[in-house]
Write a structure and sequence with these properties.
One of its GO terms (molecular function) is NAD binding. Pathway: Membrane lipid metabolism; glycerophospholipid metabolism. Catalyzes the reduction of the glycolytic intermediate dihydroxyacetone phosphate (DHAP) to sn-glycerol 3-phosphate (G3P), the key precursor for phospholipid synthesis. This protein has 14 helices and seven strands. The protein is α/β, with parallel strands linked by helices. The chain folds into two domains: about 150 residues, Rossmann fold; about 140 residues, N-(1-d-carboxylethyl)-l-norvaline Dehydrogenase, domain 2, CATH 1.10.1040. Helix 3 links the parallel strand 3 and strand 4. The protein is globular, with a radius of gyration of 19 Å. The N and C termini lie far apart (about 50 Å). The model has no long low-confidence stretch (mean pLDDT about 95). It binds NADPH dihydro-nicotinamide-adenine-dinucleotide phosphate (NDP) and 1,3-dihydroxyacetonephosphate. 1,3-dihydroxyacetonephosphate binds next to helix 7, helix 9 and helix 10. The site of NADPH dihydro-nicotinamide-adenine-dinucleotide phosphate (NDP) has 27 residues, from helix 1 and helix 3.
Length: about 300
């Protein structure tokens, strides 16, 4: 059945999601701050509102929508991979708090938007506490080039896509320093352990991190120069300053803010996150890439599990 889909955010990801829904013959409108059409007009007959704005815009768009008369049937989909710097909340928690009577669906997976726009095949996950809502969203986006799975752990799916951005920065550093394949495998594997450690403590399910939105997205962004987070790490390793990198970066690298939020949370909750800590110190220019590497290599030796 044809759905009316409003996509908030005309950036790289909002545009790619619009392409996918349009290809399935849904009625799609993209809204951005620069749109000539008002948000009120666009959401008038919406069935689904997809938020693809970067983290810094989430609270803005939520509060704009809160002031509008919305159909109680509307499903919200959040595709943002970030954390709120003030509260450490995930975007879906912000949406759900603002709209407690609407279903909220998280969409996350290994989905580099440029590849999707090139019509290369990809897979993703839509997760919600309301299974029927996740299934509606699954149908809207599924096609022979975009395979969509449902999942009942929205927090885990959201954190998988969000936490991996920190590891994508680290992976970029690893490649920028030309540390080789063994180092990269070690980094991504221990990075996943770190994601699981904090994610499970947060309330997510461990197995979710071994799926598309955790391991899958870690492999995609940790190995692709298309990832903005990877690009940040790579260029830091090549000696550029963060300010210099951000001046020329196309789009948003959410991992920079996410690293700060994670450091705060891991300190408050006494959770060991050594890779995140070195990425943080590197972003703050407190260590060089080589010093960060040595710090990680020279940590106390220990068993692989039960740290
Ligand atoms: N690109 C990708 O491959 C993927 C990205 N994501 C995630 O999707 C999110 C968006 O990424 P992406 O599209 O690449 O980023 P871009 O930088 O390309 O776009 C960011 C979008 O957010 C909007 N925005 C920012 N602040 C505000 C605000 N205060 N009010 C309204 N809109 C705002 C921007 O609007 P404006 O243009 O007006 O500035 C723009 O539309 C990120 O969280 C990212 O991690 C997830 C999967 C894949
Ligand atoms: O999350 C992404 C792909 O799944 C996009 O990664 P970047 O934000 O690092 O470009």
């Amino acid at each position: 059945m044809t759905k009316s889909v409003v996509i908030l955010g005309a950036g790289a990801w909002g545009s790619a999601l619009a392409t996918l829904a349009k290809a399935n013959d849904h009625k799609v409108h993209i809204w951005s701050r620069r749109s000539s059409r008002t948000l009120e007009k666009l959401v008038e007959d919406a069935d689904i509102i997809v938020s693809a704005v970067s983290m810094k815009g989430v609270r803005d768009v939520v509060s704009q929508l809160q002031g509008l008369p919305l159909s109680p049937e509307i499903i919200f989909v959040t595709a943002t991979k970030g954390l709120d710097p003030q509260t450490t909340c995930t975007p879906s928690q912000i949406w759900q708090e603002a709209f407690p009577n609407h279903p909220v669906v998280v969409l996350s997976g290994p989905n580099l938007s440029q590849e999707i726009q090139q019509e290369l095949p990809a897979a993703t996950v839509v997760a919600s506490n309301v299974t029927s809502a996740a299934e509606v969203v699954q149908l809207v986006f599924s096609s022979n080039r975009f395979r969509v799975y449902t999942n009942a752990d929205p927090l885990g799916v959201e954190l998988g896509g969000t936490l991996k951005n920190v590891m994508a920065i680290a992976a970029g550093v690893c490649d920028g320093l030309q540390l080789g394949t063994n180092a990269k495998a070690a980094l991504l594997t221990r990075g996943l352990t770190e994601m699981v450690r904090i994610g499970v403590h947060w309330g997510a399910k461990q197995e979710t991190f071994y799926g598309l939105s955790g391991l899958g997205d870690l492999l995609a962004t940790g190995n692709s120069p298309l990832s903005r987070n990877y690009q940040v790490g790579y260029q830091l390793a090549c000696g550029k300053s963060l300010t210099e990198i951000l001046t020329h970066l196309q789009g948003t690298a959410e991992g920079i803010n996410t690293t700060k939020v994670l450091m705060l949370r891991s300190k408050q909750q006494n959770i060991s996150m050594p890779i995140t800590e070195q990425v943080y110190r590197l972003l703050q220019a407190e260590v060089t890439p080589r010093q960060a590497l040595l710090e990680l290599m020279l940590r106390d030796i220990k068993p692989e599990y039960n740290e």
